[in-house]
Amino acid sequence: MYDVVIVGGGPAGLSAALVLGRARRRVALVDAGEPRNARAVGVHGFLTRDGMAPADLLAVGRAEVAGYGVEIIEDKVLTAEPGFAVRLAGGRTLAARRLLVTTGLRDELPDIPGLAERWGTDVVVCPYCHGYEVRDRPLGVIATGELGVHKALLVGQWSADVVLFPGTEPVADERLADRGIEVVPGEITRIVTEGDRLTGVEVAGRVVPRGAVFVASTFVPAGTLLADLGCEVDERGWVRVDETGRTSVPGVWAAGNVVDPMLQVITAAGAGSFAAAMINNELVFA
Q: So what CATH class is 2-106+218-284?
């Protein structure tokens, strides 16, 4: 019997495991090895770890939590039943008093030829995560509506040469012209590359030279396990939690991007850390 089984071994899950391991809890962390940021060159905005390769960050984290007796299991969780019986793809079943889900999210990218191949290098989502690395390049923003306007204005913090590609949706916002941001409407037919770098965006046969592109991906929570357990979700499909990470199902907690798509690596880690402390507190007084 484990005190806590953590599903998901990213920053949120590892931070939770660290807190619980130091609290002398018996913890198993199950990780399927599918990190969202696997293709990114480095993690940014994480104090003392800025620029560190995502795989290296996870390796250091695993070593730290293992030092406190946390059992790391490389496997995929198939089901979890109240009680909790956590069944793994490898055939093992884990018994747990509490369950913490930190499985994150996945990005659904615009269906533009050539875009997915550059994902994580010079096609990115978050200016705070990657803006500095592409600073002063000619940048593009592929997004529609108010989101496109907002992102283009934001990206302008890192480059004076920004073009907004809104697709076929019209855009009229005087703030764009005030900031010198060009708008190139029309169907985006492909991302243009030369060798191992992005060089432009093709719109209706015209290639607009660009050095990197920000896109608006669709965030989809990797929360199938939570849904199967009957946890309440909001109107967008994201699991509802209280301020500590507790879901509507007793004993089930969630933290990180599976709860909030806007969390960066460092804030997801913080959410996992706090949820772990609250789980330990609950166990103390159970």
A: alpha beta
pLDDT at 130: 94
List the domain boundaries for the chain.
2-106+218-284, 110-215
Neighbours of 33 (CB within 10 A): 10
Tell me the per-residue pLDDT of 192-211, one tens digit each, with 9 for 90 and over.
999 999 999 999 999 999 99
Q: Global pTM?
A: 0.94
* Chain position carrying tokens 């996870």: 58
Burial of 144 (0-12, 13-18, 19+ CB in 10 A): middle
Label the pairing between strands 197-203 and 188-194: antiparallel
Residue 170's pLDDT is: 84
Can you say whether the dihedral through the CA atoms of 205, 206, 209, 213 is positive or negative? negative
Give the homologous superfamily in CATH for domain 110-215.
FAD/NAD(P)-binding domain (3.50.50.60)
